[in-house]
Design a protein that fits this description.
By secondary structure, the chain is α+β, with helices and mostly antiparallel strands. The protein is built from 7 helices and 17 strands. The strands form 4 sheets. Strands 7, 8, 9, 10, 13, 14, 15, 16 and 17 form a 9-stranded mixed sheet that branches. Strands 3-2-5-6 form a 4-stranded antiparallel sheet, with no helix packed on it. A two-stranded antiparallel sheet has the order 1-4. A hairpin with a 2-residue loop joins strand 5 and strand 6. The protein binds uracil.
C-alpha cells in the first residue's frame, strides 16, 4: 500500500502539494469514489485512480542516469568489449534498456539508458537540438580564430556543422566546456583534430538542461526523477 499523493506525484507532473489541492477540489477518484484525503493509502497494482475523470496510468518506461566510466562501449551487445549494460544490476538488465545516444569508449559521464524508443528518438533526432554539455581537456589552448570557427559552425569533412558554445574554464589545466546541439560521430574529437589540437579527456556533464548527479560515482546510476525527465523533454527545440 502506498500513499495516494506519493503515487500521483511520482507518476505525473503534479507536486504533492498540487495533489492535495486536486483532492480538495474533488478532482480525484479512487475506484469511482471521491477521495477525501491525499494521504489515503491504496494498492496501485489493483486500484484505479482518476484525476479529472482521466485514469492514471503507471509509468511503463524506465529512464536511468548512468555515470559512464571509461572502458565501456555504449551498446547493448558487443562481441569483445564490455558494454554499459553490464554495469546494471540483473533486474535492470532484464528490462531491455539501451543507451539513448553514444559516448565513445574512453568518454565518461552522463549516459541515458531507457526502453522508451520514442523518447530516445526525440532526444537524438538532429531536428530537436537537445543541448549536451561536455567538459574536456585539450592538448593545447584553442586560438581565438579556432574558437570563432567552432562557434560560427565549422565545416567538418564536407559537412556544415551547427555552431557550438565553447568556454575556457581553467586555462592552466586546458579545461573547456563545450555545448553541442547535434551529435555526430566523434564530433568533438574531430572538431579539435581538424585544427591540429587533440581532446585528451572528455566527459559529458549535462543533457537537455539536466546535470549529471555528482553523487553518482563512475559506474553508478539511478532513475531520472519525474522533474528531470520533464526538463529533458521540454528542452527539445523544433527548428
Ligand atoms: N564527441 C566525441 O568526440 N566523443 C564523444 O563521446 C561525444 C562527443
Amino acid at each position: 500500500m502506498e500513499r495516494l499523493d506519493k503515487i500521483i506525484a511520482s507518476r505525473t507532473e503534479y507536486s504533492r502539494r498540487e495533489v492535495k489541492e486536486l483532492v480538495k477540489r474533488g478532482a480525484v477518484r479512487l475506484d469511482g469514489s471521491l477521495v477525501q484525503s491525499a494521504d489515503q493509502k491504496l494498492d496501485p497494482e489493483r486500484q484505479i485512480v482518476e484525476i479529472n475523470g482521466k485514469r492514471l496510468f503507471y509509468e511503463t518506461f524506465s529512464y536511468l542516469m548512468l555515470n559512464k566510466p571509461a572502458g565501456f562501449v555504449s551498446a547493448t551487445k558487443d562481441g569483445k568489449e564490455r558494454t554499459v549494460l553490464e554495469l546494471l544490476d540483473p533486474a535492470w538488465q532484464r528490462r531491455g534498456l539501451f543507451p539513448a545516444g553514444r559516448l565513445d569508449k574512453d568518454t565518461t559521464g552522463f549516459l541515458l539508458l531507457t526502453d522508451d524508443g520514442g523518447f530516445a528518438h526525440d532526444i537524438l533526432s538532429p531536428k530537436h537540438h537537445v543541448p549536451k554539455i561536455y567538459r574536456l581537456t585539450a592538448e593545447r589552448l584553442v586560438s581565438t580564430q579556432e574558437q570563432h570557427q567552432m562557434e560560427e559552425g565549422m565545416v567538418l569533412d564536407g559537412q556544415q556543422l551547427m555552431g557550438v558554445t565553447l568556454r575556457l574554464l581553467d586555462e592552466k589545466n586546458l579545461l573547456y566546456e563545450i555545448t553541442l546541439r547535434q551529435g555526430l560521430y566523434h564530433q568533438i574529437k574531430r572538431m579539435f583534430a581538424q585544427s591540429g589540437n587533440r581532446v585528451v579527456t572528455l566527459r559529458r556533464v549535462a543533457i537537455g538542461g539536466v546535470f549529471l548527479d555528482e553523487s553518482l560515482a563512475e559506474g553508478q546510476y539511478r532513475p531520472l526523477t519525474a522533474e528531470e525527465l520533464k526538463t529533458i523533454k521540454n528542452s527539445r527545440e523544433e527548428r
